[in-house]
Amino acid sequence: MSESAFTPRVFSGIQPTGNLHLGNYLGAMKRFVDMQGQDFETIYCMVDLHAVTVWQDPKDLMKSTRELCAGFIAAGIDPEQSILINQSQVPEHAQLAWIFNCVARMGWMQRMTQWKDKAGKNQQNASLGLFAYPALMAADILVYHATHVPVGEDQKQHLELTRDIAIKFNHDYGVDFFPETEPVIEGAATRVMSLRDGSKKMSKSDVSDASRINLTDDADAIAKKIRKAKTDPEALPSEAKGLEERPEARNLVNIYAALNEQSVDQVLADVGGKQFSEFKPMLADLAVSKLAPISTEMARLMDNQDEIDKILARGSQRAREITAPILRKTYDIVGMVPPVSL
Ligand code: AQP
Prior knowledge:
By secondary structure, the protein is mostly helical. It folds into 2 domains: about 5-190 and about 305-335, HUPs (Rossmann fold); about 210-300, Tyrosyl-Transfer RNA Synthetase. Helices cover about 55% and strands about 5% of the residues. It contains 13 helices and 5 strands. The protein has helices spanning about 20-35, 50, 60-75, 90-100, 105-110, 115-120, 130-140, 155-175, 220-230, 245-260, 265-270, 275-300, 305-335; strands spanning about 10-15, 40-45, 85, 150, 180-185. It has a 3-stranded parallel beta sheet. Helix 3 crosses helix 12, helix 4 packs across helix 7 (about 130-140) and helix 9 packs antiparallel against helix 12 (about 275-300). The longest helix is centred in the C-terminal third of the chain and has 30 residues, at about 305-335. It is globular and about 75 Å long. The two termini are about 35 Å apart. It binds adenosine-5'-tetraphosphate. Adenosine-5'-tetraphosphate (AQP) binds near residues 27, 28 and 201.
């Protein structure tokens, strides 16, 4: 089916697993805010059902979900303009995921690099939910007939699988029902790397807090982490190709470019030839000026949790106006008898 048959609609999500970081902000949240202002309906989700594919302390999960909602709003998501939800309040996500569990093939799931990375050598002991994670992600997206999904580079393979599931469902049932969703992986910071190791992605689960800038870090912590970030002894080059073999330098320049909404070439035209002793304070000032207002606003919103809970409840009401008819139509296609009124 041609994409134009579907309402332009953006869906994306973040796991409420704590330690929301600069990679989540630049790779995902900032992109979500950019897309909110364009010609799309925008739906953003705290994917709590995904979070429990690995153990979560219940109290931490609740706090992290509210904190993530506060983070979305502090970063610029307007809960009137966009729909903000936590996944477990919209049951159609999990219901459609079951259908997709029956469409997706074991071999497809076994090829997922995130499954291999997260289950590691102990796959027999990993949860069934962790294995089926990409089918739930496909349901998150397709239960809205979402046409575009902004994500970081690490989610590319899951989005390819989402398209495979849509194509197989449409083919198996002889329908043109689910769209082939487009990933939107754009900008200078689609893969922000650890500040301690330029070969590793900045990640919530890294044991070293110095590896990431958390959105809850204050100005002093941000400046200190950037000052201590791993670099090399060379001055910055004047062109992007001079960064090819320098992962840590490239990462800091990418972060600067993304925060300052410039291209890497524009940044290097200004800072080429400078030593890190000069560039790092510039980056720290920029990061503090962009991130400190977000952490201050998050803290303010977290003081009013009732308001956050109401935003999520209202979001799920609005979401279900979209998801309930799409799920019902899916069940009709599959041949499930609908309930009649008694
Ligand atoms: N380092 C990153 N650079 C750019 N984008 C990133 N994202 C995550 N890390 C980076 C993007 O953030 C969105 C939400 O990610 P998530 O929380 O759903 O899952 P994740 O990718 O598993 O996050 P982490 O930090 O890497 O967690 P752990 O440590 O648990 O594995 C996605 O769009 C993702 O691309």
